[in-house]
Design goal:
Length: 128
């Protein structure tokens, strides 16, 4: 969708994790004397799906162009098309609580959006 002329505004929030932050978390875990629990890792601030699209589009040198479509209308269209579960996966918030790992000293990536724009640029270059 980010590579199309327009994208839908999806304001749900998602936790992301950059490759660099994942590697840092793995190193921190390997350095711990004893791992006491299951740790979850994510960037510090969740981003909305429309922010993800906007960052990708910025990386592709395109304007955001988000179409204001009511979520209820999209939900009903998905239900009528037999894709209600897909709608739930697309519109639901998916937030990871990585506070336990951060409390043990891991430093999270502050803002994942620049990395998303870089990923879109790299993808575009790979297509050329």
């Amino acid at each position: 969708m980010a590579d199309t002329p327009y994208a839908l505004p999806l304001r749900n929030r998602r936790s992301l994790l950059s490759v660099e932050a994942l590697a840092a978390a793995a190193v921190d875990l390997l350095r711990m004397a004893q791992i006491r629990q299951i740790y979850l890792a994510s960037d510090r601030y969740p981003v909305s799906t429309d922010e993800i699209f906007t960052a990708f589009r910025a990386g592709l040198d395109r304007p955001a162009r988000l179409l204001p479509v009511p979520a209820g209308l999209l939900k009903e269209a998905a239900r009528l098309a037999g894709r209600g579960e897909d709608w739930q996966g697309l519109f639901a918030e998916q937030i990871c609580d990585s506070s336990a790992l951060a409390d043990d000293g891991w430093r999270q990536t502050e803002d994942p959006r620049p990395g998303l724009a870089d990923a879109a640029r790299d993808f575009q270059k790979s297509k050329s």
